[in-house]
Amino acid sequence: MNDARRIVEEATLKGIHLRLLGAIAIRLNSSSHADLFLRLNRLNSEDKFTDIDLAAYSKERGQVRKLLQQLGFAVNQNALMMHGNSRMIFESAEKGYAIDVFFDGLRFSHDVEFVRGSNEGRLALHPLTLPAADLVLEKLQIHEINEKDLKDLVLLFAANSIGNSEGENVVNGKHIASTLSNDWEFWHEAKLNLEKLQKFLSNYVDEKKVDAQVAATIRIRIEELTRMIDEEPKSKDWQRRSKSGSQKKWWRDVEERSR
Known about the structure:
Mean pLDDT: 93
Helix content: 40-55%
Largest sheet: 5 strands, mixed
Structural class: alpha/beta
Distance between the termini: 15 Å
Radius of gyration: 18 Å
Order of helices and strands: HEHHEHEHEEEEHHEEHHHH
Low-confidence stretches: none
Strand content: 5-15%
Number of domains: 1
């Protein structure tokens, strides 16, 4: 986690937009709930993070590659051929972990964009990680979501309130609702995952992993976000896709990878 911070800080000094996502970003975002992180047993059996996930802009790809090579990491050529311009994996035998860099967005079950149209993008909104809304979207897009990801959502909703704009410890519900209002398939996946989250939250309360009062706050925030998603006007594309509903496959098959 300290290495992850240093890499982002070094990039910032060089004018490069690199931001953390994934498990380390969520751990940093929810630092005020470190006790909950431990009670949920979020880490793997070796009690450590397995890699560092970073978001970047494709226009800075060359700068990102040069920086990470200077820091002792080599590009995985097989991954480069497989993923092309959307993703690069860097490795270091000395460090013992990999760095996964995603350019302009995540392309898994559904797309989470870091850049929209001609806008500068979302990587300047927080100095260290993706904004909380994007961390939530990163998890909500997963088809067949697993328990690690549900635990991450518990942490995010415990640590962040729901709002209409960006802010410290705030999930920008407006951004999430707007994103889903243009994509019925992602909207459907997100709704299913929020329902699953409510069920798992009850289990965690019964298992004494989540305090009942904290769980009540999380439920209120999930309901508030759900309301914002429901009330957001839907695009014509969303409406057209909604007609066939879940009778048609709504997710993209992706390679299995550690999250």
